Amino acid sequence: MLSALVALTPSIEYKALCYEISKSTPNWQFILDDINAEIAIMRANNEFEGFIKNKKQQCYNLG
Questions:
Q1: Distance between CA 14 and CA 33 in Å, rounded?
Q2: The whole model's pTM is what?
Q3: How large is the angle between the packed helices 48-60 and 28-44, nearest 10 degrees?
Q4: CA distances to 9, 19, 23, 56 from 26, in Å
Q5: Tens of pLDDT along the chain (63 residues)?
């Protein structure tokens, strides 16, 4: 299956990380606040960009 993959042009462009939480989810505001707090901590510790880079690598290294 991997050999059937074809690179598309133009390349997919990077978009900012976004999360969506349904307001029908119990405690949705707490969950959203928790995610945002964790992102803030990662940014303060200069870990956020490394996290994104690592996740992008996982997408590209499928095999």
A1: 24
A2: 0.58
A3: 100
A4: 42, 16, 8, 31
A5: 778 887 777 776 767 777 789 999 999 999 999 999 999 999 999 999 898 888 877 777 654
